[in-house]
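If you are new to this repository, start here. Below is one unmodified record pulled from the training split, so you can see the exact layout before writing a loader.
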Amino acid sequence: MGFHPVDLLIILLFGLALFGPRALQSVARNLGRGVGQARVVKDKIKEELQVEELSQISENIPRLPLNTREAANLLLKEQKEKRANEGAAQSRASETSEQVVRDSAASA
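And here is the target side for that same chain:
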């Protein structure tokens, strides 16, 4: 939702009539300086913020469900992840015990 060039021209003419050419020039110069300073501050803030850390933080923040369907899906997803993690831990444990049996059979 920007300004049409005709709208900007009308605003400029109104400002010229209200403040005069010198005051309008001073206002424009100060406005330009202010915008420039705002850009510098924005760039400094962007440099200081580490985007990767912010994305990791946002991933760790739990997402609140907006309705019952999302809540149910979130609970089901968590249960599936727990089951998958438990299955992976059990398979690692069985692989480790099989390796111990192989090692003991090989040494005997």
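Two things worth knowing about this chain: The CA atoms of residues 22 and 69 lie 63 Å apart. The radius of gyration is 32 Å.
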